[in-house]
Amino acid sequence: MNRRNGLKSDLLIAVTQLAAERNLPQPIVVKAVEAALAAAYKRDPAAEGQDVIVEMDPRDGDVVVRTVRHVVEEVEDPLMQLTAEQAQELQEGAIVGDIIETGQLEYNPGRIAAQTAKQVVMQRLREAERDIVFDEFIDKEGEVLTATIQRVESRWVTVDLGKAEAIMPPTEQSPFERYRPGQQLKFFVVQVGRTIRGPEIIVSRTHPDLLRRLFEVEVPEIFSGVIEIKAIAREPGARSKVAVSSNQEGVDAVGACVGLRGIRIQNVVNELLGEKIDVIEWDEDPIKFISNSLSPAVAERVDLDEEEESATVLVPDRQLSLAIGREGQNARLAAKLTNWKIDIQGISQVVEEEPETPEAETEAAVEAEVTTPAADVAEEVPVADAAEEAVETPVDEEETPAPEAEPKPEVDEEAAQAAADAELQALEEELALLEREEEERKSAEEADTLDLSSDDLWQVDSGGNSDDDDGGIRFAEDIAGFRETDAGRRGGRRGGSSARSRRRR
Predict the structure, then answer these.
(1) 139-204 domain in CATH 2.40.50.140?
(2) In whole angstroms, how far apart are CA 488 and each of 478, 482, 497, 498?
């Protein structure tokens, strides 16, 4: 009796230790041991082919071994099954589905196949571990976990989650990230499945909800529901666009996501290893929303085609490349974010493609007809006599439209354009002529003004002779021809020296 109690105590101690080593609850280990003992007793001749159930008391380790039969409608195995009528003889009120005890077997560990029991115990424990892991991570599906990269094999990455391992297939990897063993990153749990080898956990670094969860962590207003993320468009590792809106008046959604000095959004960028993020204001009006989605470009006009779900956006020519983005990236993200097909065009391109309306043609003709003639413009500008004569030169009547002509509703566009070009050319010629006359006038004034400090320009007769031919003042006009070339300059110097020598004599 003491020996039996000692064995029971040893079994209970072994169960307790096994539960601690496997980090499993003790009831689960007890169930595994019961299944292992039952499998071993089924092979014992004393069971006579019947089903065996083993019950173990977790408090004192008492073990009870029973042989049972199952109540069924049609008996296939008489040693393990019986009908309801047969079960009534053994137990009153028995129905189909009940288990009827037919006897008990003596608990004798020496008669148990130890190897069989061990295999069953280990198998049941592994199954229990898998179930526990599955139950734990099934609730974390759609969450972000911090994990360490364990190994990189080919294009598959194995991630250590602590109690389990996860895999990251190539489709869930960012093309701009390089993974190495020991690297700690945040991963989005995409799927948790059950397989023969245990739970299969798939994580991602490219899922759009990864960005959503990171914003929830960094921005308390998003976590509390004050700010809502309406849409996310992402090209992993390169650039993302996030549309946000405020559910509370007075709260700036974009400013709250960016944070003071950009600290909040910078934390998100660091978690994504430098991925650029654009936070834009969401709007119910598709025109405003599409315009905001093209940020940092500014749209001038948005035309919608609701049937085709397409939009034509006009932007200034200087911002056309900014709106499209490198390799069309900004336009693609805007289309994903808004779920609209977006066609971006420059304003000048649209103006060239659009045909002129009759009203526009009439206005252009009127402007060409009422243009001030060249002669009238020239009379208002004070110029020299030669310039006035040049301005008064008659212009061809075909090129200058009559100012008194009334605008007609139908005007030849080519004729009007030719007339306008002729007027413009005439005015340009007048302006050029006036500029030349002004330059000539200035040159003449400068020639009349002399530099009195130069000895080469003028000399005064020492004898006070006022004769202009001999000893008078000699102006720059007298030696202007000598200064055109190097020879002239040398001649001017010789002329000046001879004049001084004559005065000395």
Answers:
(1) yes
(2) 12, 3, 14, 15
